[in-house]
Amino acid sequence: MKTMSRTELSAIQNDVVGCRICPRLVEHREDMAMLKTKRFAEEDYWGRPVPAFGDPSAELLIIGLAPAAHGANRTGRMFTGDRSSDWLFEAMHKFGFASQPTSVSIDDGLQLTNAYITAVVRCAPPANKPIRTEIEACQTYLLRELEAFRNLRVVVALGKIGFDGFLAAWVRTGAEVSKPRPKFAHLAHYQLAEELNLIASYHPSQQNTFTGRLTRQMFHAVFRETQKLLRD
User: Fold this and answer.
1) CB–CB of 76/48 below 8 Å?
2) Peptide bond preceding 67: is omega within 30 degrees of 0, i.e. cis?
3) Of 70, 74, 91, 197, whose CB is crowded by the most CB atoms within 10 A?
4) One digit per residue, pLDDT tens: the chain, 232 residues?
5) Number of Cβ within a 10 Å radius of residue 188
């Protein structure tokens, strides 16, 4: 099995962490790291762009929106230390993609198997809403990741921004997208290439999970379908 080289991976991660391209995002992530929130007032925040992480030989790529201000912006690891992470890693553990069902800190021992987690935007945006120019600026890193992976077979896009952001990057790699263009809907499944499938999911944000728009049964269905595709 071919893998992304460790050198490639480290180079992308290092470039992400040192990025200061978007002034609004730089200001917000650093403000959040300084102001903090009451329950984490005694913690040191990461306060920088958050690199992707996971298994370099992964067949599964999970793409989210952006770090949470008091989640990954605090802990320094994607989907770590917030309610969304509780849902994501519970599901990933259940279906064999994560070594444990929780992700609370960067040194908690979590390991991913055959999965890699990234995001459309690598800095925590105000109100969780990046603007178009910020998405476009950050696309460079996603493009490099897509070009570096050798074994991708399934992409799970969490939320419409993740879905649209992935498709935009996919087109920029020179790949074609079927017409009519794929549309976001929970559990929508598109075959983008002979061995690459895209599955859409509602994002496991509190806005979706607290209101019942996304249930655990619905979320598990995404990873059940992913597991099936990878076994075929």
Assistant:
1) yes
2) no
3) 74
4) 566 666 788 899 999 999 999 999 999 999 999 999 999 999 999 999 999 999 999 999 999 999 999 999 999 999 999 999 999 999 999 999 999 999 999 999 999 999 999 999 999 999 999 999 999 999 999 999 998 888 999 999 999 999 999 999 999 999 988 888 999 999 999 999 888 999 999 999 999 999 999 999 999 999 999 999 999 8
5) 14
